[in-house]
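Quick one: structure tokens for this chain, please?
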Amino acid sequence: MDIQDQQEEHLKSAKMQRPKSSHRRWICRLIFWLGMALIALLAVPTGVLVLVIVGIWTGVEKITNHLLDQPKRQNS
């Protein structure tokens, strides 16, 4: 058996193992939507965490600004 015959046999066996085109399309869509659902699932807690961090940051900044402004008010 020469190299070309081996390549043809390999191609035939590879074609037999491949799922049909409609199955492949369905699997691709399933993987895509599962990926999108995973992204959405991770995005919600991440968004909430960002809002909490921003809220704490803003609160600390307001408190520190208020405390820094108090001595100025007492002196005037």
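The radius of gyration is 31 Å.
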